[in-house]
Amino acid sequence: MGFSSRNVFFPLILVGTALFMLATYRVAGPRPLVKPRYIFVDLGANRADSLEAFLQVTGAKYHYFYPRPEWASHAQAEIYLFEANPVFNTHLVKAREFYANKGIQVNIFPSTVVDVKDGIRTFFLDTVNEAHDYWGSSIYANHPDAVASKSKGTDLTGINIARWLLQNTLPQDFVVVKMDIEGAEYEVIPHLAEMSTWTVIDHLLVEWHGAEVGGGTPEEIQFRDKRASAAKNKLIAEGVTMPAYDSSAIEICAFSGAKIYPGKGKIYVRVDNR
């Protein structure tokens, strides 16, 4: 058998590489664990009313104790506000500025439609319910308030919210999503399930508006309702908490005391509503 330099040098290269990696590890140490974040995503932020409820502002229009981890207060959360109606753009900008001065991080997505894909989405504005903050603005032309407003539709930026959540949050984060999007939940909730967003969402608070809001035949309405119900059940089965939620009807009358609840391997504190 002839002599081969490869038989000599290749083992030496392996040994040298191993020694270099060991020395690097001793100097740098193991990679630190990524610190979990507390994240609140408000889909349908309106004039930031839900944000005030989330931050437990005295005198807020709505009252609800949103889930939080034991290691963070509501004010320590990263906050993301999505709102389609352009009439609230100024309110969102002012909210971001106001809370920034208090050291609270608020990120805004004004004139942005919560959708199942990225691109332009026609949005139908409610212009008649001023006393209720134009709460009937919707992606559906036949939404009763859009019809009453004789809305012809406005083209706005749509965002694939499932993709956004998967790209911007991690499984170890504590993610609370509030959704009040005037019937679009019947499209978005199935998409969240299809995209396996249960890997990052801990709590999903949805205000349901009835499958008939989207219009169509009785068969189409029934199909829409069943599809959304199946998606909701799938998300819950995978560990997402989805309690009954109604933005306009929630009020805390008394605290029964803080309780500890396990959730997806995490611990959070909730104060029960009466």
TrEMBL record:
Residues 73-212 form the Methyltransferase FkbM domain. SUPFAM superfamilies: S-adenosyl-L-methionine-dependent methyltransferases. Residues 250-273 form the Large ribosomal subunit protein eL24-related N-terminal domain. It comes from the Eukaryota. Gene3D superfamilies: Ribosomal protein L24e, Vaccinia Virus protein VP39. InterPro entries: FkbM_mtfrase, L24e/L24_sf, Ribosomal_eL24-rel_N, Ribosomal_eL24_CS, SAM-dependent_MTases_sf. Belongs to the eukaryotic ribosomal protein eL24 family. PANTHER family: METHYLTRANSFERASE, METHYLTRANSFERASE TYPE 11 DOMAIN-CONTAINING PROTEIN. This is Methyltransferase FkbM domain-containing protein. It comes from Modicella reniformis.
